[in-house]
Amino acid sequence: MKTFDHLSVVGLREWINLPELGLVGLRAKIDTGASTSALHASDVQEFERDGTPWVRFTAYIGTQVQRRHRCEAELVAVKIIKSSNGHAQTRHVIRTLLTLGDRSWPVEFTLASRKTMQYRVLLGAKALVAAALVVNPALKYVQDKPQLSSPSGAQ
């Protein structure tokens, strides 16, 4: 059996930060079956800033008690995403810095309604490959939990 000592291990669930969006202490589900990462968002509105397309949206922090947080990010693309059940949906795509453990790197997220899902953030295969992460599905919360201070603008 080969071992990969140079790769960092994450569990099936991890705590993350999205600092550029002001989102701290989010629980993320690691999903190697999903290519792209997804962030639960509502009230998505496109606008222009200095001739560049941006989106404004509401993200949600917490699982038991939901706190809303208004975010803005540059719009990278609008894509049609096909779910595992074959349903196609048009989604806005943003790129923002993700912090997990002691690493930070830019990750593309589709903005989607995940209100019926237990985890508001899905971390897909592209994000894992970009950071050279290996998933051990028998583990949860392997990396250190981020600081849980409330971001400015949370309600």
UniProtKB/TrEMBL annotation:
InterPro entries recorded: Asp_endopeptidase (IPR008503), Peptidase_aspartic_dom_sf (IPR021109)
Top-rank lineage group of the source organism: Bacteria
Signal sequence, start to end: none
Domain Retropepsin-like aspartic endopeptidase: 9-146
PANTHER family in UniProt: ATP-DEPENDENT ZINC PROTEASE DOMAIN-CONTAINING PROTEIN-RELATED, ZN_PROTEASE DOMAIN-CONTAINING PROTEIN
Listed name of the protein: Retropepsin-like aspartic endopeptidase domain-containing protein
Species, as recorded: Pseudomonas matsuisoli
